[in-house]
Amino acid sequence: MSDIRIEKTNIRKDMIKKRSSMDREFIAESGKQIAKLVLSMEDYKKSDIVLMYYPVRNEANVRDLFEISLNMGKKVAMPRVLNKCDMEFYVTESWEDLAPGYMDIYEPREGLSLYTYKPDIKAFMAVPGVAFDKKGGRIGMGRGYYDRYLKKYPYIKTCGVCMEYQLIDKIPMEKNDIYINYIVTEKKIYDILM
Fold this sequence. Notes:
The relative contact order is 0.19. The protein has 194 residues and is an alpha/beta fold. It has five helices and eleven strands, in the order αααβαβββββββαβββ. The mean pLDDT is 94. The chain has one domain: Rossmann fold, CATH 3.40.50. The strands form three sheets. The chain has a seven-stranded mixed sheet with strand order 3-2-1-6-9-10-11, with helices on both faces. The chain has helices spanning 3-20, 24-39, 42-46, 63-71, 145-152, and strands at 49-51, 75-81, 87-91, 98-100, 106-108, 123-127, 131-132, 138-139, 157-161, 182-184, 189-191. Helix 2 (24-39) packs parallel to helix 4.
């Protein structure tokens, strides 16, 4: 294992431990603050579709953002893991469209419409992560699903969502890692757009 991978593994373990100790009330309140800040962002306002995730294990809570986006008339899509390398996003209209999937994480049920990237449809993605830095570096769970997906669709505006404690000085990045355009915490928007 390379030095970078060892460093990322250590950061991941430390952050998951911290995240698991967070109070559910703090997670819920942080999610409300994150939603308010995301709603104020121009790239979010201009988006036709919002790609997001089902929060698990004390990840930044995007449930309010999901509900508000649907109420605003935006399309929302959630990821489904297809195999060990790939995930795709499916248009999701309610929490009832989800069912336990890969690793018991809620995913879109079979039969929902596949989101197909088109350059003329503005997409905004709320990206989960274990840790971020203020230059757009990100550590996820280590399987590379988001990096591979975003490499195929580089024009999607990406917004890492996390709690402020998940920001660290520097994320060790590898050649296949994708940088995020923005980071939103419960306290602030970090505009990284490159």
